[in-house]
Amino acid sequence: MNITEFVQLSLGRWRSQRSAHHLAFRHFEEVTSTIDIEAIESDNPQVIALCKSHDIAPETVISPFKMSWEGESDWDEEETMAGSTILVPIPNPEDLTKGKLLREQGYAETIPSVGNYYISEDGTFVLTTNYDRATAEEKIWFTTPNLRFRVSLIKTSDGKGVVTASFSSEIRSLTDSK
Description:
This protein has a single domain, classed as Lipocalin (Beta Barrel), CATH 2.40.128. Helices cover 10% and strands 56% of the residues. It has 2 helices and 10 strands, in the order αββαββββββββ. The model has no long low-confidence stretch (mean pLDDT 90).
């Protein structure tokens, strides 16, 4: 699988159930959310702006997409978590299974970020992103076209300690309605 195939397989509406262990707080959290992943054009102004902000040539972009989410946590039942971000894969020209992923908004810190990804032989997408105060490691794999799993670790900035560990199961909605 290469990055284009991975993104294509990811498009759609997903219902997610995530279990997270916040080790620093000694807290377990359950999150249910809806995630929408939609393809966007390479010449989208947000894609071009994101590339320029990281000094990356926009013509190197392959399969940019937008991810939006809305969810609820049992940690704070009063708050609905919602947001969206633009994601722009910049594959290695010699190997489309490796590259950089630009994010308008990061996972561990809500700032623009650049992560490094690779897709393993078994089709697992692995992304590592270094932030100012943390490092995020994410792995996503499909068991069927409509069921995928995601494991995320938030580590200390030196990468030695784990602050948060989570596991998500995500099921694609098979209806067109939102």
